[in-house]
C-alpha cells in the first residue's frame, strides 16, 4: 500500500508537505502548482488519507488545556469563553479528547504531569519561565493569544495590531486627529499567581506607534480591565478635547460610557468610541458599541488543528499565525462609517 513518503518522493516534496496539503492545514503556505501535483499523485495511486489515518497520527489523542482565566473572569469577558468553545468544537470534530482543563493559579499543578498528554494548548499569557518549563516536559505545545515573540513555540494570535492601525487610518481620512486610548497592561501568570512584571498591550502599542508615525500627540490612560477602571480612565481622558477614544475591551467601555454621560457628552455626536472583543454586550449598549472582533472561536479551532500537525510532525519549524480581526461598525461611530 502506497504511503505519504512514496507520494512525497514522487512529488519532490517532504512528507510533511504532503501531510499538510492532504489535511488542508490553513497555516501552511504552498503553491497551487505543488498542491495540484500532490493531488494528482494521490489520485493516480488511489490513496485514501482517511483510510490511512493511522499513518499520520494515533487513533485517539488526549489534549490538556491550560488557561489563565477563572470562571468568574470568563463570565465578565466572554472572549475567552469563545476561544475555549473553539477548542472544544474542533476537538470533538477531530475525535480528540480534551482530557484536562486547568485554570491558573493552581498550587497543585506539577509540570511533570503534562507528559501524559499528547499535546497542550495554552489560552492566555504566562511568564517566559512557565512556558520553558512546560515545553521541557511536553514540547507539543500551542500558545493562543500570546503577542510576544517566541521562536520555539507555535502561536495563534489575532491581528489587533494591524486592525487598530487600519481603523486609525480610516478616522484620519475623516479629519479625526484628536484621539485617545484607554486600556490596561498585560500581566503574565506564573505557577503561583500573577507575576509582578507587566508589559504593554499590543493595542496600546499599535496606537502609540501610529500616533508617532503621524506626528500626533497621544492621549493614553492605562488602568486595569474592569468597568470601574473604564469609568476612572475615561474621566482622566476627558480632561482633553478628544474626537475619538479607542477602548481596549468592551468591559472597559461600559464604565467609559457612564463617564462620558456624566460629562454631558453624547456618543457619537461629541465623541466617537471604538472598543475591542465584540462581545454580546456591545450590541446592547446605548448607543450600540462599534467593536473589533478578534476571531476568538477560530483561534481555538486553529490551535487544535495546529496541535495535530505538531504531533504528527514534531520536527517542523514552529509557525506563528495571525488571524484577521475585523471591526463591527455600530452606532458609537456611525457618523463616519
Automatic annotation (TrEMBL):
Protein's UniProt name: LacI family DNA-binding transcriptional regulator
TM segment ranges: none
SUPFAM superfamilies: lambda repressor-like DNA-binding domains (SSF47413), Periplasmic binding protein-like I (SSF53822)
Keyword Cytoplasm: no
Coiled coil spans: none
GO terms of molecular function: DNA-binding transcription factor activity; transcription cis-regulatory region binding
Record bears the keyword Transcription regulation: yes
Domain HTH lacI-type: 2-58
Alphabetic keyword roster: DNA-binding, Transcription, Transcription regulation
InterPro entries according to UniProt: HTH_LacI (IPR000843), LacI/GalR-like_sensor (IPR046335), Lambda_DNA-bd_dom_sf (IPR010982), Peripla_BP_I (IPR028082)
